[in-house]
Write the structure tokens for this entry.
Amino acid sequence: MTEVRWEDISVEETGPVERTQCDCCRAETLQATGDLQSGEEWLGFFSVRWSDPRGEDHPPLFTVYVGDWSEAGTPDQRWAIRSYWRDTGLGLDDWSSEERAGITGFTPLDRADLLDTPFAATYWAMIDAIIMKDGRLEHFRQ
Ligand SMILES: [Zn+2]
């Protein structure tokens, strides 16, 4: 994958914002999903989940899915990376063992899997594009 800049990544909304109740605190939770493209090249898709009002324990969560998500793709060819947006900023977050136990369709990548890889720059470009270009996340930019 060649290096892409966030300016060159387009964000396509793939559905309306979904509203659910958080399992733990019943706070209203919103989720937005979309596709990421660089020109003709499909880079991946994403979800952003946040609670309204913003909960102390639930910073906004960004998850980016890359790899082969065609029907021919296998779980070891599909990866997901994520970041919580805490007061200190966005960082790479690990998946808990409980979460890993429930995942069968893809390979969750942790912080250590991404640090110092060429893909890390692309990941952050995708995150920046989501924040800067997704119209549903306008409130995050203020
Ligand atoms: Zn909760």
